[in-house]
Structure prediction request, 511 residues.
Amino acid sequence: MAGKRSILIVGGGTAGWLTAAYLAKYLGLSDDGKLEITVLESPEIGIIGVGEGTFPTIRETLQFVGIDEARFIRETSATFKQGIRFDNWVHTPAPGTSSHFIHPFEAPFYTEGTSLVSYWLLQDEKTRPPFAQAMTIQNRVAEAQRAPKRPHEGAFDGPLNYAYHFDAASLARVLAGRARELGVRHLRGLMTGVVLDEKGAIDHVVTQEHGDLTADLYVDCSGFRAELIGKAMGVPFKSIRNQLFTDRAIACKLPYDHPDCPLESYTIAAAHEAGWTWDIGLNGAHGIGCVYSSDHISDDRAAQILSDYTGGKDAGVEVRSIPFEAGYREKQWVKNCVAVGLSGGFLEPLESTGVVLIEAAVGMIAELFPHNGPVDAPARRFNELMTARFDNIANFLKLHYCLSKRDEPFWRDNADPASIPERLQELLEQWKYRPPGRFDFILDLESFAFFNYQYILYGMEFKTDLSPVRDEFPNVKEAEKIFAKIKSFSERATHDLPAHRALIQAINAAA
Ligand SMILES: Cc1cc2nc3c(=O)[nH]c(=O)nc-3n(C[C@H](O)[C@H](O)[C@H](O)COP(=O)(O)OP(=O)(O)OC[C@H]3O[C@@H](n4cnc5c(N)ncnc54)[C@H](O)[C@@H]3O)c2cc1C
Prediction:
């Protein structure tokens, strides 16, 4: 590298500040006199500020950038998340009834030699426990409102895999503080224009308060506005609304009935006639939202569904309405402009994949960033990997919808093969005869592993019929012993681990 290199990040939401902190750390900004990273954000425009659930990868990311876990939990009203509970996804519930299954973060118990999944599949459907309950201790621990770790366990560590629920606006603030500590320059101001050079790359951006700003690499973190990648570079948005139908969310925050009431450590995703509601227990309040398809129900009906869910407690509370469209930019890195976060694309928050996609993008930019040479060189690889990730997450999300036997039009439309991606159809056909396995997926292109698919498939009552080859699984006694062991470990863990609420209170009290 001959001269100074500079990265300009436009946008100060989760995407902007996570990109800034991560790159600052990875590229050693504070020790590198030849690198400059700037975040430009417009306080007037503000951030989307939704997004309260995430994925276990966030622990590694926060640790990498140097954020203390306890401080993060205190400053973002965070709680622990051990997975997602899906209510009424399989059947439309009869009045007064409800059913659910859990998608835990912990992988199914693994044994060398005995495929537990196959033995579960061969058990009597009427009497066997739910898949996640049979395969991992986390199901019972989460249902018992226990935490995934004890107070003395180290930061970001614990016996069970976990992520967090957190207040998204506070997360951006915590990341911003850390990024500034790492040497990132922060400019408050409005970008009013983008000037391209004769080759179509960004020459400079124009701001109201700071004049023209130039950089070697421009990172578009401007959210749904996609100021650089969309408006300036003209990269088209590829909608996949023909697969994922939801396009709106309404969201509010409600206090708990009682400050000491038990605290769930999973997101509750409850299916309704045209989508689902989320219910996320933060420290101090619930984040509640209703995600729906405007082709299937009206905004008024969605408001009624939210109100029914809260038992009318949302009356008089600020309810935000957020329109969105499922899809992404097929090219997310073009010349010297790369998109991270909502500017690159968005898939509904059913499996909390917004921040995961930011982490994936930023990790790739960090590794592909050329310390020397042209910044657009890694673009092709980045685009291949990111678009594959979006497509694969879309497949995983669609799996939740297309297996449902609910009878409302939204759900029947979701089961229409014309709306199911070909790759998913192929896999579903294979999984009639064998469970999902690791060779179904290429790790670097995925956010979800084969066992995540197993949890959803079998939670949704998908049938993998191994009965014609039952003889190939003779170790029934051995498998039963392991299932019994998982059950007794679950009971012990439920006893040994603290109540989730108690752990959160202890962490906050230690401030
Ligand atoms: C309904 C909903 C629920 C979600 N739930 C989850 C979830 O549970 N888990 C999860 O991981 N993700 C979730 N997400 C996604 C998550 O919210 C986003 O991925 C995340 O917040 C990143 O947003 P962002 O930083 O890309 O955009 P934003 O937060 O919108 O930030 C954009 C930034 O760009 C700035 N900006 C824009 N234009 C200009 C300009 N001209 N000049 C200067 N600055 C500008 C703004 O000021 C702002 O700072 C959800 C999203 C939605 C819509």
Residues 10-16, 40-42, 45-48, 50-54, 168, 190-191, 221-223, 225, 227, 249, 322, 324, 341-342, 349, 352, 354-355 surround flavin-adenine dinucleotide (CB under 6 Å). The domain at 5-77+164-239+327-391 is CATH 3.50.50.60 (FAD/NAD(P)-binding domain). Residues 54 and 353 are 7 Å apart (CA to CA).
